[in-house]
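Subject: design request, 290 residues
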């Protein structure tokens, strides 16, 4: 890939009495050139995540509203978006995902715009696009709503991550913008497998499988690895969390794939990236002077 260096602008969270942090964030965005983008009547995807239920490690809706209001002021049509997760949890399908967002405080009143789950109800609504200069991923499986947007805004917070090392703009877009098949491609060099102790033989996974790769010869689901295409539909279909991907991609390879997915998502479109470094746990703080 060709190397392109973009300017980076910083500020802190200190404010004065008549300037809120939201207003300061808008000023920073303007200083960084967001108003040079032509937003008039454009669909603008604000890519973020809404946190898991019971977890407080996500951006406050106030910051989201500051960005959405600025985009509307510039003539754009913003919406919040994220794709469903590959792992079991409260964001693995659009119904649970939207409920999760609502409980964590994200709605049209608190954020100033609506939420569209990027890869649809079960994580299968995606678009296959070429990766420009891709070395590790020739094609990327991108959530359709994110792909259909005219402008991409990444809004994320810095955080630690067990595989990526840390999460920021690249993880937010590259991993978070991939559909379930896209997450499979980045996370795993293998195919989904079944924990037969958890399988209830309901056969929902087999009905969702697009390649007839799931059998029940032993009474429990079994995925034929030579037939499976790795789309991950079965993971979303299982109500008992019995199916999971085989996570065997090394951390450095994961980072490279995420970078290529980010390039594919932003290709040919204006993009703007906002990262807030806040609520950082002591374990991630660098020693003084580093």
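Subject: RE: design request

Done. Sequence follows.
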């Amino acid at each position: 890939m060709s190397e392109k260096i973009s300017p980076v602008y910083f500020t802190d969270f200190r404010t004065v009495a008549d300037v809120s942090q939201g207003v300061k964030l808008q000023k920073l965005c303007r200083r960084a050139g967001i108003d040079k983008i032509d937003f008039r009547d454009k669909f603008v995807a604000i890519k973020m995540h809404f946190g898991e239920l019971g977890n407080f490690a996500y951006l406050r809706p106030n910051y989201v509203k500051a960005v959405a209001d600025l985009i509307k002021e510039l003539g754009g049509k913003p919406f919040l978006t994220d794709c469903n997760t590959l792992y079991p949890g409260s964001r693995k399908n659009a119904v649970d995902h939207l409920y999760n967002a609502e409980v964590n405080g994200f709605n049209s009143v608190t954020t100033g715009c609506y939420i569209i789950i990027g890869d649809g109800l079960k994580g299968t609504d995606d678009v296959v696009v070429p990766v420009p200069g891709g070395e590790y991923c020739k094609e990327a499986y991108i959530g359709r709503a994110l792909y259909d947007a005219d402008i991409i805004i990444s809004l994320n917070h810095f955080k630690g991550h067990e595989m990526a090392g840390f999460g920021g703009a690249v993880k937010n877009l590259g991993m978070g913008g991939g559909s379930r098949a896209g997450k499979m491609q980045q996370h795993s060099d293998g195919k989904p497998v079944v924990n037969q102790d958890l399988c209830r033989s309901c056969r929902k996974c087999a009905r969702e499988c697009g390649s007839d790769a799931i059998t029940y010869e032993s009474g429990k689901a079994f995925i034929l690895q030579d037939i499976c295409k790795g789309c991950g539909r079965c993971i979303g279909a299982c109500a008992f969390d019995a199916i999971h991907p085989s996570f065997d991609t090394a951390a450095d390879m994961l980072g490279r794939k995420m970078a290529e997915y980010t390039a594919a998502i932003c290709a040919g479109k204006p993009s703007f990236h906002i990262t807030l470094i806040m609520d950082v746990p002591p374990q991630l703080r660098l020693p003084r002077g580093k």
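The chain has a mean pLDDT of 89.
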